[in-house]
Design brief:
single chain, 313 residues, alpha/beta, Rossmann fold, 2 domains, seven-stranded mixed β-sheet, five-stranded parallel β-sheet, 8 helices, 27% strand, magnesium
């Protein structure tokens, strides 16, 4: 049997084990066996406990901090390359360090570019990821990148809500393109929040561009970290006469006091994917799985079938 026709093998990094199992189930397979040995100083070594020679393999793992998650992905890619896997696809539901995609002041790194080079050097021959913080990060890679949009998950849910007087909102100017894409699909109005930061994760000022009086507002963003922007935007919109405010965020980093902020905010609901595992549950957080999306795309990649429909907002 030609190597390209061998059944692909799926493996998951520790941080994405549950999502990996769900993807494998949707794919119609099981996760391959990986054992990770850990030294007393914290150094660790993943080991494939089955042959991958000549096969296509998918390694599933989000690279959110801490840095061990990225390191584990790199080590598994290197192990697969040295074990003579034929095609090695890094499946990154969340591509971490993506906010450092440019030099916004002197003497700082462009971390997203560095991570891209590290993944390729480690052995990745293809990248599959979802809702990058900036589209141009695809250009940091020399290997093929399949950049999926979580809108294929969120839009059906949003339509099921059947909200009257729906308005899509962006929590900042940078997300306006995403907001307009959602508004086009939902045939709704758009409003934009303009914010100024005192420093990272600290907002000094926020203004609303547009009218939300009597509207059911849905904020759309690629990630939620401290939830400071989202909760401040929700409070501002309710002050300006909105009927309700929900938020759609693909990647739920939810660091620091984020869970407490969400619970105390005027957000009616925070809708996320399971690209990053939740640290705790919340009555306001609704999780939609991205497992079927990734399984479908991985199957199409293996069978050389078009996946262009998964790129559309």
């Amino acid at each position: 049997m030609p190597n390209d026709q061998l059944e692909p093998k799926l493996f998951a990094c520790t941080q994405s084990k549950e999502l990996g199992e769900n993807i494998a189930k949707c794919f119609g397979s099981e996760l391959g066996n990986v054992i990770t040995s850990t030294y007393s100083d914290g150094e660790f070594q993943p080991s494939f406990e089955e042959s991958v020679r000549g096969t296509r393999i998918f390694i599933i793992g989000s690279t959110h901090p801490n840095a061990d998650h990225l390191m584990e992905m790199l080590l598994m890619l290197d192990a697969a390359k040295r074990a003579s896997a034929r095609h090695i696809t890094a499946v990154l539901p969340y591509f971490g360090w993506a906010r450092q995609d440019r030099k916004d002041k002197p003497r700082v790194p462009i971390a997203a570019k560095l991570i891209a080079k590290m993944l390729e050097a480690a052995g990745a021959t293809r990248i599959i990821t979802m809702d990058l913080h900036a589209d141009q990060i695809q250009g940091f890679f020399e290997k093929p990148v399949d950049h999926l949009f979580a809108s294929t998950i969120f839009l059906p849910y949003l339509k099921e809500l059947n909200l009257d007087n729906l308005t899509i909102a962006s929590p900042d100017m940078g997300g306006s393109k995403r907001a307009y894409a959602y508004s086009k699909a939902m045939e709704s109005d758009v409003v934009i929040c303009y914010k100024q930061r005192a420093k990272a994760n600290v907002i000094s000022h926020m203004e609303l561009i547009g009218n939300v009086t009597g509207k059911n507002v849905v904020l759309v963003d690629d990630m939620v970290d401290t939830a400071g922007t989202l909760t401040k935007a929700a409070d501002l919109m309710m002050e300006r006469g909105a009927v309700s405010v929900r938020a759609i965020c693909t990647h739920a980093l939810l660091s620091g006091n984020a869970y407490e902020r969400v619970e105390k905010s005027q957000l009616k609901e925070l809708i996320i994917t399971d690209s990053i595992p939740l640290r705790q549950e919340s009555s306001k957080i609704k999780v939609l799985s991205c497992a079927n999306l990734f399984a479908d795309v991985m199957h199409r990649v293996h069978t050389n079938t078009s996946i262009s429909s998964k790129f559309l907002m």
